[in-house]
Specification:
290 residues; alpha/beta; Rossmann fold; five-stranded mixed β-barrel; two-stranded antiparallel ribbon; globular; binds 1-O-phosphono-alpha-D-ribofuranose; binds uracil
């Protein structure tokens, strides 16, 4: 059955609704970044850029880095945008946009996020990179899909540990792609950790400016959580849903995080741009050898 025009939405030129992309515009290796200005920072290291477009916060450039074809796309801030980006990228490779039918031969994408993040453990030093072994979702997005991709043992351990208001979405944990973990975990600068993904930057990450929190010790509870030899190292706003949707749709995903703040010590990076630039170069080098 062809997908209806209201479900698979295409622009008049045949490109997919929000991303403004056609299948031929993207590589199968994709870097996602939050900030649209980071896209050009990544592609400044490319040999050439062969395509670019932008709609809203979704800026895309495709080109070659050391002979490898890579697409870089900005997701903007937050989980709601990840729902759009992952579903539309998948549609570009796994749905025939002309017939509106799901293709028989599944195409796998490799998706690596280059993001910024705040450490919550004292040992997660500023300007280091956290490689997210798992995304710990406090966002609830995955609960809207029929899913069997969560790490149920780890999720159960977290739910037993946390004492938060039942009004909030149930947390979930999804592991990163193991082949990408093995490939990226080779440098002393890379800290493996569980990355908490929150629905917001302030209250949901335990920050108070003028408003009081409903669960003031939420961050302390995250800091003290242990599962096997893992702990929650850092917080940001995209990883859990990227991992969850990538797994559900049959893609590989990894999230790399430049640590620009440390919530345990109250510090902020003196040069966050340099920290992100260093992570960009590291990630490109790793992807070129994949
Ligand atoms: O730097 P990016 O990739 O946007 O990532 C982090 O920064 C934003 C918040 O400042 C959120 O998107 C968070 O996940
Ligand atoms: O503390 C931080 C830093 C960057 N991004 C976040 O979401 N949180």
């Amino acid at each position: 059955m062809p997908l209806a025009s209201s479900e698979l939405i295409l622009n008049p030129d045949g490109s997919i609704y929000h991303l403004n992309l056609k299948p031929e515009d993207i590589a199968h290796t994709i870097i996602t970044v939050g900030d649209q200005e980071r896209v050009a920072k990544v592609t400044s290291y490319f040999d050439e850029v062969i395509f670019e477009t932008q709609k809203r916060e979704f800026k895309t450039q495709t080109g070659f880095y050391k002979g490898k074809k890579i697409t870089v796309i900005s997701t903007g801030i937050g989980i709601d945008n990840i729902d759009i980006v992952l579903n539309e990228l998948d549609a570009l490779v796994n749905i025939d946009l002309k017939t509106r039918e799901i293709k028989k031969n599944h195409q796998k994408l490799t998706i690596v996020r280059i993001g910024t993040s705040g450490g919550i453990q004292p040992f997660v030093d500023l300007d280091k990179f956290v490689m997210s072994e798992a995304g710990v979702g406090f966002d609830g997005l995955l609960h809207y899909y029929k899913n069997k991709v969560t790490n149920d043992e780890a999720t159960k351990a977290l739910c037993n540990h946390l004492k938060v208001s039942p009004k909030k979405p149930l947390p979930y944990i999804v592991d990163a792609d193991q082949t990408l973990i093995d490939h990226f975990l080779t440098e002393s600068k890379v800290i493996p950790g569980y990355t908490g993904t929150n629905l917001g930057f302030y209250g949901p990450q335990g920050r108070t400016l003028r408003l009081e929190l409903e669960d003031p010790d939420f961050i302390d509870q995250l800091v003290s959580f242990r599962y096997k030899n893992h702990c929650i190292t850092n917080l940001e706003m995209e990883t859990s849903a990227t991992y969850g949707l990538a797994k559900l749709l049959g893609h590989k995903a990894l999230s790399m995080n430049a640590i620009i703040a440390n919530r345990a010590t109250g510090e902020f990076s003196k040069d966050p741009k340099d920290s992100v630039d260093s992570l960009i170069r590291f990630t490109l080098d790793k992807l070129s050898k994949l």
